[in-house]
Amino acid sequence: MYTTKFGDFNSLKGNIIMDEETTLKVLLSNEFDQNVPKEFQNITPDKWARYAFENNKEYIVTYYKAGNPYVTVSNTMVSIRFSYYEYRDRVLKEYMHIWFKKGYIDKTLKNAPFLPFNDGKIFLGQIKNKSLSSTLIFYPQKKENNVFLEEFIEEDGKTQFIEQYGTADLSKNWFDAPKHYLDYEYLLDYQKLFEYRPKDLKT
Predict the structure, then answer these.
(1) pTM surpassing 0.85?
(2) CB within 8 Å of 42: residues ≥ 6 apart
């Protein structure tokens, strides 16, 4: 159903998915600055993705559906971001971002280390719908006011910016972490994920 390439979206170059080699150069530059170790200077995009997954480094893979870019997955040390696309007037546009948290920063400990979640889990932490100008954020460490919504709405011909905290059961925001570097297909169908979105915010 899906095909994959290790290319990233670039709005500065005309809203395109960059080729794999260019994307890899950007990733290696971000990781090593100008001092890319010899063992990575001729690494392939596929091998970098395998290495990055196993060593908690950033890599990027774009999934194609019916030959068109469907979603780009960016796996970093702290999160996994899904960026969804659609064509508008023949131009490729990002219309939604979904973030899964891989852990949290424990500010009670010295140097505030990043700690992975237990039991190989990731947490659905944020949904940003660019088309609707809304962002929904979930907080796994909080029981009260654990959901935050911000959005622009039109009312009486005027646009208003709304911010709202609420409390919801977030037990269904937990998912199994990917088992290998291309193990994302079970998370790609965002409409299924939205079944787990809190239906009623208690404010």
Answers:
(1) yes
(2) none
